[in-house]
């Protein structure tokens, strides 16, 4: 029963990693942009939620109503004003600019919120759990995170494959030059993609803020988990990203059971093993 | 009425000059062909016309307005659509999604999915299949249909017979009169002089980045075009 418990815990934490990664995966899939500030944007969303709770006494989870549109609008502007200018000039400019952005976000958060570690309190929801079998129970909150991951990744998947906007985004990913010949404005489409990515990143940030401690410097480690989930799952496949997050989460849970010191390392080792065995990830998208 | 006019159009790829002062004219609803050997500058000319190469504004007039150097998506909104060389369908989209993408500029006009399916009935049968699963001729039909979905006033077609069997080429060209019947001008780039002059009313023959011969297809001897084609 212990091992079943470990697996369940791994899957549940993996769902949060998948949410971290979904925005990264979407942005990479549409415009081949690796955003090194992604982890810091997760933490920025967490601090936004924290500020809203402090200022208006909102329930932590209710802050998504505000954090999601704020982050989406920020994403649109960020892409339109800054990141679009880095595209089409090779690999390095987007990496350098997003790395700089990462440092700026960290330091702004430090300036505004201090270096203190924060966490959002959920009250009863944090400790209540569902007993699925004698001796085996699952916390309601991690379950909620899993549901959110499946729901929002499913929604983005539907948007990509069932709507005209989604078709335009996939076309952009296929062949940017030809989408322009179709009358599509790629600068706007890219900005919409980043807005969507930061909307889901906002959800990830709020859910993270109530689950783990965070401080202005905790972005880069989130980026690493997100990046690993994307690579393990296969670039450009959102369901793959969900699976990838779970592989990292499972490896951490198993590693942590063997020896608590192994928890983080086991996740990275799993990532390296997948890279060696299946360099294109577990579910590579058939197109790219 | 003159729809498109170029005045001394020049274009460069970096330091390499590919077009040397092209003057051409396309009237509304007209069928014009650009012929020329490989490397004569036909595709470069089309790329310059549809906003894929930097060009001085007043070297291209569309409907009397200077449009040289405008972004491709702005030109589509003005009514200038392109069927690119090699078709360039979106591989991760179905046939129908490819066609719908063509309507992204939301220009009003006669063309709709139903009309495209009327023009190419085979596409209706295959509308849910990925565009990569089609034959070359069917892919070319999608590419033309996708261009028409923007309800253009001018449709530029780059090498639409390339790599297709002669019988399929006939099918593809058979669709173009229906396009012109809607008042849309069509410019086709073609390597096959016979095919080109059967279809078009007027031709421009390019050689080494210049127009070396032009005129009405029925007024000029095919051998004269052939000689200009090879720069003789």
Task: Explain what the structure shows.
The complex is a heterodimer of chains A (288) and B (232). With 288 residues, chain A is mainly alpha-helical. In chain A, helix 1 packs antiparallel against helix 9. With 232 residues, chain B is α/β, with parallel strands linked by helices. Helices cover 33% and strands 27% of the residues of chain B. In chain B, helix 3 packs parallel to helix 6. The model of chain B has no long low-confidence stretch (mean pLDDT 94). Chains A and B meet through helix 7 and helix 8 of A and helix 2 and helix 3 of B.
Count of β-strands of chain A = 2
Order of helices and strands of chain A: HHHHHEEHHHHHHH
Radius of gyration of chain B: 17 Å
Bin the helical content of chain A: over 70%
User: Which chain pair has the greatest contact?
Assistant: A-B, 19 and 26 residues
The order of strands across the largest sheet of chain B is 6-7-8-3-9-10
Largest sheet descriptor of chain B: 6 strands, mixed
Mean pLDDT score of chain A, rounded?
93
Sheet having the most strands of chain A: 2 strands, antiparallel
Order of helices and strands of chain B: EEEHEEHEHHHHEHHEHEEH
C-alpha Rg of chain A, in Å? 19 Å
- The unreliable regions of chain A are none
Count of DSSP strands of chain B: 10
Task: Output the strand order for the largest sheet of chain A.
Answer: 1-2
Supply the helix-strand structural class of chain B. alpha/beta
Question: Could you list the spans of chain B in which at least 5 consecutive residues all have pLDDT below 50?
Answer: none
């Amino acid at each position: 029963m212990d091992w079943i418990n470990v697996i369940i815990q791994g899957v549940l934490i993996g769902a949060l990693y998948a949410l971290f990664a979904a925005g990264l995966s979407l942005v990479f899939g549409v415009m081949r942009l690796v955003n090194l500030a992604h982890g810091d944007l997760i933490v920025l969303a967490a601090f936004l939620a924290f500020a809203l709770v402090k200022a208006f006494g909102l329930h932590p989870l209710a802050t998504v109503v505000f954090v999601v549109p704020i982050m989406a609008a920020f994403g649109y502007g960020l892409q339109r004003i800054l990141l679009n200018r880095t595209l089409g000039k090779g690999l390095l400019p987007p990496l350098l600019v997003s790395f700089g952005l990462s440092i700026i976000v960290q330091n702004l958060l430090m300036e505004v919120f201090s270096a203190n570690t924060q966490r959002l309190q959920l009250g009863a929801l944090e400790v209540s759990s569902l007993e699925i079998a004698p001796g085996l129970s699952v916390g309601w909150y991690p379950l909620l995170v899993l549901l959110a991951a499946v729901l929002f990744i499913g929604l983005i998947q539907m948007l990509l494959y069932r709507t005209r906007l989604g078709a335009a985004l996939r076309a952009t990913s296929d062949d940017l030059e030809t989408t322009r010949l179709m009358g599509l404005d790629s600068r706007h489409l890219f900005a919409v993609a980043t807005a969507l990515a930061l909307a889901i990143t906002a959800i990830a940030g709020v859910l993270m803020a109530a689950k783990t401690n965070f401080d202005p410097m905790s972005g880069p480690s989130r980026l690493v988990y997100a990046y690993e989930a994307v690579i393990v799952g296969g670039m450009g496949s959102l369901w793959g990203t969900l699976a990838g997050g779970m592989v990292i989460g499972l490896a951490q849970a198993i590693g942590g059971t063997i020896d608590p010191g192994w928890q983080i390392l086991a996740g990275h080792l799993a990532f390296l093993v997948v890279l060696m065995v299946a360099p294109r990830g577990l579910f590579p998208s058939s197109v790219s | 009425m003159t729809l498109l006019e170029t005045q001394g159009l020049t274009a460069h790829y970096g330091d390499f000059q590919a077009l040397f002062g092209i003057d051409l004219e396309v009237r509304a609803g007209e069928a014009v062909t650009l012929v020329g050997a490989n490397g004569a500058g036909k595709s470069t000319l089309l790329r310059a016309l549809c906003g894929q190469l930097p060009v001085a504004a007043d070297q291209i007039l569309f409907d009397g307005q200077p449009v040289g150097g405008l972004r491709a998506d702005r030109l589509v909104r003005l009514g200038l659509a392109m069927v690119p060389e090699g078709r360039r369908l979106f591989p991760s989209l179905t046939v129908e999604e490819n066609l719908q993408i063509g309507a992204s500029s939301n220009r009003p006009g006669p063309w709709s999915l139903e009309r495209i399916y009327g023009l190419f009935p085979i596409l209706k049968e295959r509308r849910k299949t990925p565009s990569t699963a089609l034959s070359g001729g069917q892919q070319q039909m999608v590419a033309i249909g996708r261009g028409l979905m923007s309800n253009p006033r001018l449709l530029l077609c780059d090498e639409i017979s390339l790599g297709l069997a002669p019988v399929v080429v006939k099918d593809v060209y058979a669709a173009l009169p229906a396009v012109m019947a809607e008042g849309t001008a069509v410019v086709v780039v073609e390597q096959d002089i016979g095919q080109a002059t059967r279809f078009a009313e007027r031709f421009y023959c390019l050689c080494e980045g210049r127009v070396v011969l032009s005129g009405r297809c029925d007024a000029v001897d095919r051998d004269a075009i052939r000689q200009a084609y090879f720069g003789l």
